[in-house]
Amino acid sequence: MLTIAMPKGRIFEEALELLRKAGYALPPEFAESRKLMIDVPEEGMRFILAKPMDVVTYVEHGVADLGIAGKDVLLEEERDVYELLDLHISKCHLAVAGLPNSRLNDIAPRVATKYPNIASSYFREQGEQVEIIPLNGSIELAPLIGLADRIVDIVSTGRTLKENGLVEFEKISDVTSRLIVNPVSYRMKDDKIDEMVERLSAVITNEEDES
Ligand SMILES: Nc1ncnc2c1ncn2[C@@H]1O[C@H](COP(=O)(O)OP(=O)(O)OP(=O)(O)O)[C@@H](O)[C@H]1O
Ligand SMILES: O=P(O)(O)OC[C@H]1O[C@H](OP(=O)(O)OP(=O)(O)O)[C@H](O)[C@@H]1O
Questions:
Q1: Interface predicted TM-score (ipTM)
Q2: Global pTM value
């Protein structure tokens, strides 16, 4: 049995479609179910549905053999997992943003973010000593109410920035979802895992050729 940690929310639907296109027969009720653990015996698979930021934890601890996680999550924390495949889904990017014509406060510049490690290493590379203010969501609020001069957050269409009167100053990194694997699982079950990588790669290549 292969156990796969799936991220609930926006990535889930795209990941489900990719698996189905790769020929995995996943039950139709999959998307509507509130169950957090779903077995698909005919495919020899068990799916667990987790918070996106937690997928890598289940895989690192080996209770899930595989997982689908955003590259932002993998960049934020060094975790003992292997990254097997760029799934080219949930495309977005990490960026520095803030109020237009604003600058970093000279004395104690503050950066609000859900990605403290990515933000602090980015500004360190820019030679800027900043105070990181960790938040869990609605990061764009921080510059509006004077909590921070800058944010480091995910940007996709740019709509959230625009509607909140913010602008993007720098792009840090492109982000897509990745297939990750527990290192021990990869050694123990590699034929089934290799087969999944091959089947998913074929779908991704085909879709890239068609686009
Ligand atoms: N606007 C977006 N467009 C595309 N992909 C996104 C966007 N925002 C986040 N992502 C990707 O989706 C993953 C999950 O992000 P999301 O914000 O849905 O989850 P979360 O914040 O961890 O959970 P929740 O929002 O339910 O608290 C992120 O790790 C990132 O890779
Ligand atoms: O450029 P856009 O298309 O506007 O997308 C960017 C927004 O998407 C995410 O928000 P989301 O609501 O997913 O989650 P959050 O709770 O982390 O803000 C991210 O945090 C940005 O706020």
A1: 0.94
A2: 0.94
